[in-house]
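Re-run with default settings, no changes from the original entry. Doing this only to confirm the output is reproducible before filing.
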Amino acid sequence: MSSIPIDKISLISRINLDELEKGIVSEKLEQVVEYVEMLNKFHDKSIQQSECNSKQNVFRGDDIKIASNYEKEIIIKNAPLSMENLFVVPLLVKRIG
């Protein structure tokens, strides 16, 4: 008997499985669990965890640039639709009620 609760997993994930598919999925998940258990045997606490992401922020800072009136006019002229120096975009979500 499998220790993996396939019925619960299929219910939670909203996947309908017939008995044959449950057997196949159960086998595959058992293999995954066995592999992870095998990897856990080789866990060595003397090896330090890599700190490649904890040193510093690698993203650049935000450079704020204030556009001149001339640049704003060019930007608005290139917009498909504008009104009062603003872009007009199509409505994506309808209001209900």
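The chain has a mean pLDDT of 83. The radius of gyration is 28 Å.
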